[in-house]
Amino acid sequence: MFNIFKKEANDASIGTVSPHLKDIEPSQVNWADKDDEYWKRVLTPIQYQVTRQQGTERAFTGQFNHFKEEGVYTCSNCSQPLFHSSTKYDSGSGWPAFFDIFSKENVEEKVDKKFGMTRTEVHCSRCSAHLGHVFPDGPQPTGLRYCVNSVALNHIPLLERSSSSTPKGA
């Protein structure tokens, strides 16, 4: 799957690949074996607080809130594909919003009754990282709004397609 994307491990501005995964094939890792000490060691403090302790970054502060480049948004903890840029939209909420997921197998949901309200929490199915919440007030065709913390995401740009199909020298 990753052959259609550029891996730019040194490009911190878009965070394409988690530094702790640069020499690892994420699908070959047993993520259930990773304990709290592992996550504290490999994640930034805000990534750990949000993705491992079900926290939330402040609204309008995340790097992907207004980000518009094409590509796939992956889990910042394990690089599993979560959302495609074609499903991203500006919800005005202050967090990146998507109206659909990359694959239903990649995102899990559970009921969250914290703070006196009932919401649906979304997690990465591979490593159980907390991503954010999903609400039934999004645009069509799904009517859903996946409200996701930027620190739970990385972005992998699509490979640029050739602008010409004419072979060189023709």
Succession of helices and strands = HHEEEEEEEEE
- Radius of gyration from the alpha-carbon trace, in angstroms: 17 Å
Question: Any idea what the CATH superfamily is called?
Answer: Peptide methionine sulfoxide reductase
Share of β-strand residues? 15-25%
Mean pLDDT: 84
Read across the widest sheet, the strand sequence of neighbours is: 3-4-8-7-6-5
Q: Could you give a short account of the major beta sheet?
A: 6 strands, antiparallel
What CATH calls the topology is: Metal Binding Protein, Guanine Nucleotide Exchange Factor, Chain A
DSSP helix count?
2
The number of distinct β-strands equals 9
For the record, the CATH architecture stands as Beta Complex
Tell me the helix content. under 10%
Report on the architecture of this protein:
It is globular, with a radius of gyration of 17 Å. It has one domain (33-157): Metal Binding Protein, Guanine Nucleotide Exchange Factor, Chain A (Beta Complex). 9% of the residues lie in helices and 24% in strands. It has 170 residues and is mostly beta strands. The protein has helices at 36-42, 45-52, and strands at residues 71-75, 81-84, 88-89, 97-98, 107-112, 119-124, 130-135, 145-148, 153-157.
Short descriptors:
mainly beta; six-stranded antiparallel beta sheet; 2 helices; 9 strands; globular; disordered N terminus; disordered C terminus
What's the gist of this structure?
With 170 residues, the chain is mainly beta. It has two helices and nine strands; from the N terminus they run H-H-E-E-E-E-E-E-E-E-E. It is 9% helix and 24% strand.
